[in-house]
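Q: Please design a sequence for this.
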């Protein structure tokens, strides 16, 4: 009998909370599959998804706002357990006939709840326990709907948690998904396993096995083309497909002249040498640099690179013969962008992937990683036996160093940045920080500064260093790198990289800044 990793599923309806993606992460961490969808997901689609439970996220609105987001109330007639978090709890209250009112004292930040009922949602806690939680609300429950009982209270929320055990409906006024609620994961697991009856079947070992099996069945004897960049996502995609269909996979690796030092050789040695894949190196660095000549606008850089990539890729793909599928390493955060509460986000920057290639080449997309978060992709890579250095590789932008050189792209400026970047990464690794931070890289700024070297005045370039901590790149904070590490990086760059006389450190977070500079 085949293992079905999708047997136990949780549906998360997004009402616009900044923490909704964290709920999904916590559920996945508990080895239960889940999906995020906008609050107004069609009832028919909910039934087709067949979840074991539904989680209603928080959100910035008040339930009495004229445009307050409202899910289809018929979800409460599906005989499926429901957990409402913050706004989700207020939605449950309002729809089921209770009363939500403005709180006399709003609760934002750390708070203490008193547990009144330690069964079900608070199983494993002690009755009358005081637990630290994270609140973020201006409304509160004044009267619970019929059938509900209070499970916990706080100083400003007489009903900080409630439940109707017969219908398996529960609500919490706080956010169990955030790290500031220390035992929040325990509460979520109680909902998943005790109330919804899920089992921990979502493992990356199981995912890899089932995906290889499914790809083999779906693709059959057809040919697949994969754009391989050497990054984690495209590498895991390529290896999954290679294990599924073998030589029916052809990979194309485009050297656009904007890669880091030694990258082309490393990719070819691993995939052609070790994995014996059918991989084709297309070196068009001269073409890309020619196209970028004089281009300084960040968005135009990305579009120029994207157009050139499409042209090069399409030409090479046609040389390889007829294929039916185009594989790419789309991840779940990319999918979430189009299904979240806010819908498709405004263009902050163009993403460099295969763009319109599927339509141009009349190919069907294969995206074996589209259900995974980044950390899950890394786990799959480990299960597949990929080298740890590659699996733990930090994200690298599709347009490469072009978006880390502010202003004009030239061979000389690329040489400067590559040299500085190598030094930074060497020191980050020596300090045992490489796998602990999300990303670390150098940026070449379009300014020159006065310096003194060997008693002579210099007027040279500035390198900015960027090191950030993040879980999924949706938000990020600048890393407090030890001063001695920063001192070594700065000293080595200024002494060894010709053309640089100043190094600065970027201490901005996302938001409001982005991780990359362009």
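A: Design:
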């Amino acid at each position: 009998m085949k293992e079905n990793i999708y047997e136990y599923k949780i549906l998360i309806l997004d009402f616009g909370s900044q923490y909704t993606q964290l709920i999904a992460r916590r559920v996945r961490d508990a080895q239960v599959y889940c999906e995020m969808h906008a609050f107004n997901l069609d009832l028919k689609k909910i039934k087709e998804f067949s979840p074991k439970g539904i989680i209603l996220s928080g959100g910035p609105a008040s339930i009495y706002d004229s445009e307050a987001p409202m899910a289809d109330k018929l979800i409460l007639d599906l005989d499926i357990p429901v957990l409402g978090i913050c706004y989700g709890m207020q939605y449950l209250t309002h729809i089921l006939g209770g009363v939500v009112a403005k709180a006399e004292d709003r609760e934002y930040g750390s708070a203490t709840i008193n547990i009144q009922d330690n069964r079900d949602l608070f199983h494993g806690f002690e009755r009358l326990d005081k637990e630290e939680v994270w609140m973020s609300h201006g409304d509160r429950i004044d009267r619970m709907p019929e059938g509900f009982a209070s499970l916990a209270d706080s100083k400003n929320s007489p009903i900080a948690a409630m439940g109707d055990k017969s219908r398996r409906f529960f609500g919490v006024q706080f956010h169990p998904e955030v790290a500031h609620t220390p035992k929040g994961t325990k509460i979520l697991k109680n909902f998943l396993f005790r109330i919804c009856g899920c089992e921990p079947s979502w493992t990356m070992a199981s995912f890899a096995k089932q995906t290889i099996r499914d790809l083999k069945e779906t693709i059959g004897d057809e040919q697949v083309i994969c754009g391989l960049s050497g990054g984690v996502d495209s590498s895991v995609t390529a290896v999954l497909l290679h294990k599924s269909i073998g030589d029916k996979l052809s990979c194309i690796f485009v050297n656009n002249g904007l890669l880091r030092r030694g990258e082309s050789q490393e990719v070819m040695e691993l995939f052609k040498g070790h994995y014996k894949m059918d991989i084709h190196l297309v070196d068009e660095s001269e073409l890309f640099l020619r196209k970028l000549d004089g281009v300084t606008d960040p968005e135009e850089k990305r579009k120029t690179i994207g157009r050139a990539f499409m042209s090069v890729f399409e030409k090479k793909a046609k040389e390889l013969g007829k294929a039916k599928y185009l594989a790419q390493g789309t991840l779940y955060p990319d999918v979430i962008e189009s299904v979240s509460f806010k819908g498709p986000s405004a263009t902050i920057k163009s993403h460099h992937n295969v763009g319109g290639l599927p339509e141009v080449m009349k190919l069907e997309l294969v995206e074996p990683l589209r259900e995974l978060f980044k950390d899950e992709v890394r786990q799959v890579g480990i299960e597949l036996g990929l080298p740890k250095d590659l699996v733990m590789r930090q994200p690298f932008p599709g347009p490469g160093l072009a978006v880390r050189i502010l202003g004009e792209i030239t061979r000389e400026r690329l040489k400067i940045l590559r040299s500085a970047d190598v030094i930074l990464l060497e020191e980050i690794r020596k300090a045992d920080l490489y796998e602990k931070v999300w990303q670390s890289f150098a940026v070449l700024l379009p300014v020159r500064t006065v310096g003194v070297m060997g008693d002579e005045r210099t007027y040279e370039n500035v390198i900015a260093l960027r090191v950030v901590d993040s879980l999924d790149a949706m938000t990020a904070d600048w890393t407090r790198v030890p001063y001695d590490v920063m001192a070594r990086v700065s000293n080595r760059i200024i002494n060894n990289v010709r053309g640089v006389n100043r190094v600065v450190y970027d201490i901005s977070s996302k938001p409001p800044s982005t991780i990359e500079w362009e």
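Q: Thanks. Anything notable?
A: Residues 298-319 form the longest helix (22 residues). The CA atoms of residues 148 and 164 lie 4 Å apart.
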